[in-house]
Every structure is written in structure tokens, then in C-alpha cells.
Amino acid sequence: MLDLIDELSPAHGAPAVAPEWEDPARYWPRLSAATGHLPAPVAVIDREALRYNAMDLLVRAGGLPIRVASKSVRVRSVLDAVLKLPGFRGILAFTLEEALWLAETHDDIMLGYPTVDRAGLARLFADEQAAQRITLMIDDLVHLDLLDSVAGPGSRPEIRVAIDVDASWRSSLLGHIGVRRSALFNAGEVAAFARKVVARPGFRLVGLQMYDAQIAGQGDDAGPDAPLIRMVQSRSRNELRERRAAIVAAVGEITPLEILNGGGTGSLEFTGSDESLSEASAGSGLLGGHLFDGYRSFRPAPASAFAFDVVRRPAIDIATVLGGGWIASGPAVASRQPRAVWPQGLHTLSREAAGEVQTPLQGPAATSLGVGDRVWFRHAKSGEPAERIESYHLVSGDEIIDELPTYRGEGKAFL
Ligand SMILES: Cc1ncc(COP(=O)(O)O)c(C=O)c1O
């Protein structure tokens, strides 16, 4: 069983050594050795790197409890192990079907996004325990109407709901900076909506969610736009801190709230310092997808990775692996490709990129790669590789110590 609570190690008290991942020549070949008997594609989670990342999230959140964003993990044993660490509390789920499944073993699940899954709602309404454990996300009275159309207030348990508030930055010069989710923006709009929700029988308003994608999901340390991004994020932080305080105060006068949620992996310092909030969300920082390498304030350890094997050599400086095209969601730009990390110095070809079945890799290291050699990659995001594989092999030191089924490996494909 994956356990991240460390007893004092024999080395306790000895001089601190640099974490293994800071020595790539040791970190990656060790994974090749440990997984050599397994066919590719093979995926691993390094226990010590995962533990480091979990602890780093806690430190960055500065004492604010962290709700784990399950979409960025999609491995139950990892969610369970992280939630045993003091400081992590509750799950931010991504579909109702998933929330119902997790509610069998977890008692605090907030669905981060609205649902229109009528079959799932019917199951929720028929399950008193799940109804106490799951909070649904809304930002429109239509959401409540849809719930009522599945079963009216008198014929189902009271349903816990939270309001999603737009945490984007509305710049007079640059327009809408952030994601497009809720239309509720200012304290007046949110309070007016909250009053209507509270007046509806059969619902209990328990929370607010304000996710600042333009800060939490946007690196500030990469590329020529970095200075502009930093300026935008700084303005957005100032605006959001004030607006959040006004929203929380306004809704707090209407009804007491249990959950005041904000942030994501990339904004934990800011979120942790916002006194209006009762918790932060984070997920990506646990397994450490490479999109999260581009932040000044933290650097996740490469806790998860996958490998493909070289199957042919089309040219002296090109080695081709079977597989590779595990592209991340979002804009179809180069940064969404998986990154070859070992051996170092490999890149994809601009005309071919990471392919559906084959990926040619070029660079100095390619000349010494032979057929059958293993190449390690990191995914851009943290949860999506779990849709490609049935399990991660858990590595500690030089050994595989466990096999952790992904959602897919447990027969679940939610999105
Ligand atoms: C509502 C919400 N909260 C928090 C997050 C942060 O998740 P992560 O830390 O995995 O980036 C996300 C990610 O998209 C989200 O949609």
C-alpha cells in the first residue's frame, strides 16, 4: 500500500543530501533498471518525489488545508495516501460519476464543475450517505432546475451546493484574462444569486469556489512573455484579493459557509495568504507534469514518468520509439507534447512531433540509442497519462515496491 507518512529514516540526523531527481544521471537510469523486465509503455511514480511534492504543496499553502484535485491524479491509492497527510482535506472531483465512486470511501467531495448527468443525479438522490458527502457546483438557476427535474425537493435528500465564481481578471486593455466558467463575477451578482439559492427548498448552500486559472495554471518563468505574465498576475492578485473578500463577506451575511475554496498548484502562496479562504485546491503539483516547470516560486519533482522503447533507427542521429503521442489537452502548442527527459538532449522533429504510434527523436543522445533502449518522458499534465495506462509502478530507491492501478485500470473512464 502506498504510504507517504515517513517514519524517521536511519539517515535521520545525517547531512542532507540532494534529492535524487536533481541528479538525472542517477534518477532516470535507476528507473530503467527497475522496470527493465516490464514491456513498454511503462509508467512509474517515484515515492520519494511524490512525497516531496506533497510536502512542498503544504509548505507553499502556508497552513491552509489543501483539497486534492483528483483530475490531476486519477489514481485512487495516490489520493488516499495524500489525504492521510495532515494538511490535505477533501477531494475536488471532476465528474458526478467519479464523485459517487469516491464517496464510497471518502466523506468530503466537492464536484468542481456543474453536472447535467441525470442518471448520476438519480443515484445521488437515492443515496443519503453520498448526498451528505458530495457538494455539487452551480453557477446558474438552470442547474437547480435540472436537479429538481430529476427529483423535487420533497422526494430526495437536501443537496449540498457550492457557487462557482469567476476569478478571472477583467482588464480594460487586455480583456478577459482567465478561463471561461461562471458568469458570476462581483459581490452583488454572487450575493443576488446566493439569495435565490438559499430561497430554494431542497438545497443547502455550503460553499464558494474561486479558481484563478490565470495565476494557478500559468507559469511566470518561461518565454518572452514572462514579464507581461508577471505584471498581469500581480494586478490580478490584487484585484482578486479585494473582490474575494467582498464576495465572502456579502454571501456570509446571507448564510454561513463551510467551504471557501480558491487556487490551484501554481497559486498556492497567494491562495494560502488570502484570509477570506478556508482551503486551497491543488493536484498537478503532486505528480508534477512538466507544464509546472515554468514557475519562479516552485519546481515540482518529476514524480511520474513513462517510457517507450526504441524500435528503429531511421538515421544516424535519429532513434524512433514505439508510442509517444500522449498530447495534453489545451491549445495545441508544442508545450503540450510529452517531453523526452532521459537520455538528455532528445527532441522531436518539428514536422512529425510526438506520433500516434511512432515518435522519432533527434539529438546528440539519439546516436547512442540502440533498438530496445528505453526513453523516459514526462507528460505536460499530471492526470491525463492515467487514461493511457492501467497502472503506475511505484518505485522507491532502486526497486518497484507496488503497482498502483489508475482509474482506467480500475475500469473507470470518467472523461
Ligand atoms: C476548479 C479548479 N480548482 C483547482 C484547480 C487546480 O488544479 P491543479 O492544481 O491540478 O492545477 C483546477 C484545475 O484546472 C480547477 O479546475
From TrEMBL:
<protein>
    <submittedName>
        <fullName>Alanine racemase</fullName>
        <ecNumber>5.1.1.1</ecNumber>
    </submittedName>
</protein>
<dbReference type="GO" id="GO:0008784">
    <property type="term" value="F:alanine racemase activity"/>
</dbReference>
<dbReference type="GO" id="GO:0036088">
    <property type="term" value="P:D-serine catabolic process"/>
</dbReference>
<dbReference type="InterPro" id="IPR029066">
    <property type="entry name" value="PLP-binding_barrel"/>
</dbReference>
<dbReference type="InterPro" id="IPR051466">
    <property type="entry name" value="D-amino_acid_metab_enzyme"/>
</dbReference>
<dbReference type="GO" id="GO:0008721">
    <property type="term" value="F:D-serine ammonia-lyase activity"/>
</dbReference>
<keyword id="KW-0413">Isomerase</keyword>
